[in-house]
Amino acid sequence: MVAPFVNQVQEDAVERLIEGYRRFRGGHWPEYRDLYKELSKGQKPPTLVIACSDSRVDPAVIFDAQPGEMFVVRNVANLVPPAEKGEGLHGTSAALEFAVRVLKVGMVLVLGHGDCGGVGAALKGMPLDDFEYLDDWIGLIAPALERLGDIDRFAPESKDMLEREAIKLSLDRLMTFPFVANAVGEGRLSLQGARFRVFDGRLEWLDKATGEFNRVA
C-alpha cells in the first residue's frame, strides 16, 4: 500500500511544477520577455544573498526582486564557513568567490530567519544520528553559541538570539576570505546582515555600529 501512495505524491509534485511553469509562461514571461532577452547576454547582479534553504524564506519573494537582481546562495541555516582549502568541495565558498571576483557584486547580504531548524538543532545540542553531512555543517554555529555565554537554551528568546548571532558570525567569516577583505578594504564591497521573521513577515536589519537588529518599517 505504501508504493502507490508515494508514487501519487511524486506525480502530484511533478504536476504542481508543470502547472507553475505554465503560469510562468502565461503571465510572468510575457511581462518580462525583454528583460530576459537582455539577461541572456549576461548577468550583472548588484547583490549576493546568502540565505537559508528553508522553503519559507525565498529572498526574491521577500525583496520583490526581478530576474537578474540577485545572485543567491542557499544552504542549511544560511551559514558562511571559514575560508579554508583542502579536502572536500566548498560550494558556498565557490559561489562567494564567483560573485565577488567575477560578477563583482557590490554587496553581500547574509539573510537569516526566525524559526530556523538548523539553529534550533545547534541550540539544543541535538545529535543528528545517521546523517553524513548535517552534523559537521550545523557545528559551524558552535562559535556563535559560545559568544552568547551561559544562556537558557530552552528559553524562546535564546533561539532568536542565536539566529542573530549566527548572522554576525557569518559576516565575520566572510572577512576571512582574502578576496572579500580586499574588496571591502577598497570600498568596492559592503557586508550586511538581516533576519526575516516568518510568523509576521517582518525584516530586521543589522546595524553594524551598534550590533543591534532593527525592524525595517
Describe this structure in words.
The protein has 217 residues and is of the alpha/beta class. The protein contains 9 helices and 6 strands, in the order H-H-E-H-E-H-E-H-H-H-H-H-E-E-E. 26% of the residues are buried. The model has no long low-confidence stretch (mean pLDDT 93).
Defining key terms:
217 residues; alpha/beta; 17% strand
Q: What is the end-to-end distance? A: 52 Å
Give the low-confidence spans. none
Helix and strand content put the structural class at: alpha/beta
Task: Summarize the main sheet.
Answer: 6 strands, mixed
Number of helices: 9
User: In which range does the helix fraction lie?
Assistant: 40-55%
- Written as H for each helix and E for each strand, in order along the chain, the element string is HHEHEHEHHHHHEEE
Mean pLDDT over all positions? 93
Biggest sheet strand line-up: 2-1-3-4-5-6
Shape: globular
Radius of gyration: 19 Å
Number of strands: 6
**How much strand content do the residues show?**
15-25%
SSE arrangement:
Blueprint: H1 2-31, H2 33-39, E1 47-52, H3 59-62, E2 70-75, H4 91-102, E3 107-113, H5 117-124, H6 134-138, H7 142-148, H8 156-174, H9 178-185, E4 190-197, E5 202-207, E6 212-215
Helix pairs in contact: 7-8
